[in-house]
Every structure is written in structure tokens, then in C-alpha cells.
């Protein structure tokens, strides 16, 4: 009888997990409660939530306002279709609010259940836009190494983390990747065109997009896709001059710019949307995660006014035929509105910027360790990259499992987050206290010392 089994045994019998690993489920954390920046597991142990769930619980766990917003909406209208000919008031109000907060040229929104659906919508919309303009051959999407955009088939094909691919090949036709503008590992000398090449590393990295467009043929490339800061790939912060050049290249070659702001949107970098700090706007912006703080599965895509005009003009066989059952879900929209109100009322974007500065400052105290190769971050997202040799930036052999061992050591001390190999990511909620930030860094330092030896010895 399975009712005599404990939760962990029931889990192994009946659940499949993201990035499935049966060994990881031998002694799983079964999370039973959360408050603020703390998670509580089945044993009653408390853990600092170093990644705000999965980058998404930005206003913290246990928010009664969000639970009440969901319950109130469920009582009033739990669900109704938002296909053409129908709508609901929370969806209308949310779209109006996002037009106020988003890039000035982005005023129309389609809602989804999460980030992968949002990116799939953006891919289809880019193809649709060029077809309406008479460019039927423009279908390719150029992404980047270390970019993460989801794991549905097209989103996985756009993702530039190769470990997601092998067991699901072949990938969808028309997705290709250029090198990431990864300051710690981008080798400018390999890209220099000669002794008189005065380009910065950021310009060189951006110019890889132009080279790819020219190689493929601009008449085949629909869009360039990128996270303003690459999150799951290891919090890769591009040089300051990278994105402005990307925008120029897209304009020069008639290529749409899709900003994947699933992680960076709604304050993670200290701005509502991350490209705004560079003074540029995308043609499409995808979002999810922080819009509801993870309290309801929700996401969307915002489109520029010229793309919206093309969609509005499509009739009959030229209609924008795109549909999700749960698009504009009234409960999700109600939770999003309540969540955005919290962000504004409590000044949490400014709080994220301040906490992020403290986090990065504290993490830099770990930089003296001989195996800390790089400390980086922007806003309230940061990473520490561990290396075998700091002089050469050589990585540890994968078999040594340095990152997972550090992760185990931090869990033993009460900190939980996620890694990319030997890159330790931190992106806590915006309501984390200064003392909790300091403790996260202290725990990570102790864990590194335990696994790789005490600093200076």
C-alpha cells in the first residue's frame, strides 16, 4: 500500500522532475513552507533561499496579499477564454499597467503561462511580422552561447547551453548561436582584425552578430534573441557598449531584436526592464517569473507598435493564428496586478539595486581565494565562478564535481540555490535583509574553504 510510504518514497514512485536525476531524489528537500527569503523543508529546517525560488519569488514567500488576490478573483471569475471576441477586466488592466511600465514603443501584450511559451510566441510573431511585410524567407533566430530560453522544442533549440540538447535532437531548423559577450572568458585577441583594430571587447562580441547575419544572409534572419544579462548561464553581464551596438546591427540588417527578460524583468536589475539602462528598446520583450513572483504560472510577450499594427492588419488567412487556453488567465492577471502594486508601494526596485550592490561588495571579499576566478553581477543577481587555476582560468575537470560539492556544503549550512557547473548563482528576493545577504556570502565562503582549502593556505 503506497499510503504507508513517506513523501520521498511517494515522490520517487510518481513524480518526474525537471532536469530529472533519480539520485538527487534519494534525499530530497520537500519544501513545506516559506516566509520572506526563507524556505522550510519537511524536517523543519530553514534555508536561505538564495535564488528566490527560480529567480522568480521577488517579493518573498508568504505574501497574504497575493493569496487573497488569487482567491478573490477565483470566487468572482476563475476562468474564461480570452480568444478573440472575449476578454476579462484583470487582463485589460494588466495590459494597461504594463504599457505604463514597459519600453515606450511597447504597448500591446499577449499573455502566456510562462517563459518558454513567451519565447515560442516571440519566435512565431517574428516570422509572422516578416511574412506580412513580404519577406517569407526571414525565419532564422540567432541566439548566444550560454543563453537560456526554455526547454520546449523551439525554446530548447534557441537555448545556447548544449547540455540541454543531446537526448532531444534534432533541434528545430533555423536556430543558431554566436559566442556570448562573456567578459571573463571572451578572448578579444582571437577576434582582433589586425593591429589597427580599435574595437572594444563589447563591440567585438556584438560584431559576431553582424558576421552571422551576413553569413546566413540577412534575407533569412528574422530575429536576434538575448537576455540582457544571461541568468541561468552564470549571470553573465555584458560590457556596457554591447547592447547599443547590437541594436544598431539589428537595425542595419532589418532584424528584429527580442529581449528575453524572463529573469531580468520586474526589477531584478534595479529597473523595470533591463535594456532601459542602455537607452535602447527591443522589438519584442518576453517576460514571466517576477511578474507574479511565482505565485501563479504566468508570462507574456510585449510587441512594438509597428508589430502590433501588422497583427491588427492581419485578417482572414493572414490572421495572427496563435492561441493558448490559459492566455490572459484572469487569476494570473489579478495576481500580477497585486504583485506589481507591492513592487511599487514598497519601493522594491530601489531595494533590489541597493541589496545587489551590497551582495556584490560582500562577494568580492571572497575574491582572494586562489580558486575564485571571477565575481560578477548587476542588480540583485550575482555569481562566483570557481576555477582550477586562476592565472590560466582553467576549469576543474567535470568529474571532480566542484560546484555540486560546494552546493552540498552550502546546504549543510542553510543556503539553497542553483549552479551552472562550477558557477555559483545568487539572486535572492527583494525583501531579503542585509543580515541575510551577509550570511549567504559567509556561508558560501565557508563552503569554498571546506571544498577547496582555506584562503591563503
In CATH, the homologous superfamily of the largest domain goes by the name Type I PLP-dependent aspartate aminotransferase-like (Major domain)
Q: What is the N-to-C succession of helices and strands?
A: HEEEHHHEHEHEHHEHEEEHHHEEHEEEH
Overall shape: it is: globular
| Estimated share of beta-strand residues | 15-25%
Distance between the termini: 55 Å
Describe the largest sheet. Answer: 7 strands, mixed
Number of domains: 2
Radius of gyration: 22 Å
Low-confidence stretches: none
Helix content: 25-40%
Strand order of the largest sheet: 4-10-9-8-7-5-6
CATH topology of the largest domain: Aspartate Aminotransferase, domain 2
The computed structural class is: alpha/beta
What CATH architecture of the largest domain would you give? 3-Layer(aba) Sandwich
Number of helices: 14
Name of the CATH class of the largest domain: Alpha Beta
Keyphrases for this structure?
single chain; 457 residues; Aspartate Aminotransferase, domain 1; 7-stranded mixed β-sheet; 15 strands; 15% strand; globular
Notes on the protein architecture:
- There is one protein chain.
- The protein has 457 residues and is α/β, with parallel strands linked by helices.
- It folds into two domains: 2-59 and 347-452, Aspartate Aminotransferase, domain 1 (Alpha-Beta Complex); 65-345, Type I PLP-dependent aspartate aminotransferase-like (Major domain) (Aspartate Aminotransferase, domain 2), CATH 3.40.640.
- The chain has 14 helices and 15 strands.
- Strand 7 (221-226), helix 9 (242-252) and strand 8 (256-260) form a beta-alpha-beta unit.
